[in-house]
Amino acid sequence: MDAASEIDAATPMMAQYLAIRAEAPPDSLLFYRMGDFYELFFDDAVKAAAALDIALTKRGKHLGADIPMCGVPHHSYESYLARLIKRGFKVAICEQTEDPAEAKKRGAKAVVRRAVIRVVTPGTITEDSLLEPGRANHLAALSILRGGAEAALAWLDLSTGDLFVRTTDAEAARLHAAALSLSELVIADEEASEPWKCVIDDLGRTAAIAHQPAAQFDSRAAQRRLLDAFAVQSLDGFGTFSRAEVSALGALLAYVSLTQVGRMPALKAPRRADASPVMLIDAATRASLELFEAQSGGREGSLLAAIDRTRTGAGARLLAERLSAPLTDPSATNARLDAVEWLFNERDCRDAVRERLKAAPDMARALSRLALGRGGPRDLAAIREGLVAAREIAGTLISADRLAPIPPELAEAAQALECRDGEGFSDLIALLSQALASDLPALARDGGFIARDFDPGLEAARLLRDESRRVIAGLESRYRAEADAKSLKIRHNNVLGYFIETPPSSADKLTSHEFAKVFIHRQTIVSAVRFTTTELAELDARIARARDEALARELEIFDRLAESVKGRARDIGAAADAFAAIDVAAGLAVLARDENYVRPVVDDSFAFAIEGGRHPVVEQALRYASAGAFIANDCRLANEDGAKIKLVTGPNMAGKSTYLRQNAIIAILAQAGSFVPAQAATIGVADRIFSRVGAADDLARGRSTFMVEMVETAAILNQASARALVILDEIGRGTSTFDGLSIAWAAVEHLHNENRCRALFATHYHELTTLARSLPRLANVSMRVREWKGDVVFLHEVGEGPADRSYGVAVAKLAGLPKSVVKRAETVLRLLESQRGASTALGDLPLFAKAEIEPAEQKCEESALAKALAEIEPDRLSPREALEALYRLKSLAKGLP
Question: pTM for the full model?
Answer without folding.
Answer: 0.81
